[in-house]
Structures are given as C-alpha cells and as structure tokens.
Amino acid sequence: MARVVITTWGSFGDVNPYLGLATALRARGHVPVMAMPSFYGATVRDAGFAFAAVEPDADPGARSRRWCAR
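User: That's the sequence. What structure does it adopt?
Assistant: Structure tokens below.
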C-alpha cells in the first residue's frame, strides 16, 4: 500500500480524470490524497478522497486571471 499524492492546478477538465485515477488507486489498496486549490475541496471530499489545499487558490471560472496572457 502506498500513499499517493495527486496534484493539479487547473480546471475541472484536469480534476475529473484525476478522480478516476484516484478511484483506480484506491481499488488497488492505495491511499490517494488530492492536493489542489481549495476551490476543489468539496468535489474531492464528496468523491470520498482525502484533500489537501495548495496555493495559489484560484477559481477556474474567474474571468480575470493574473497568470493568463491578456
């Protein structure tokens, strides 16, 4: 058994496939921990996985993003 940290800093298009990966890992006896911006915390916890918030905290639906080209 391994504790596996899965991390992303993207949109739900990034998060949802990782939830599938976490499900497969758990089925094989591992303990997945999802490390993502706190915006995704409820989604991850509702799916039954451990969650760890990482910075920067960003809402993927926000129109104004500092990190995007203008």
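The chain is about 30% helix and 20% strand.
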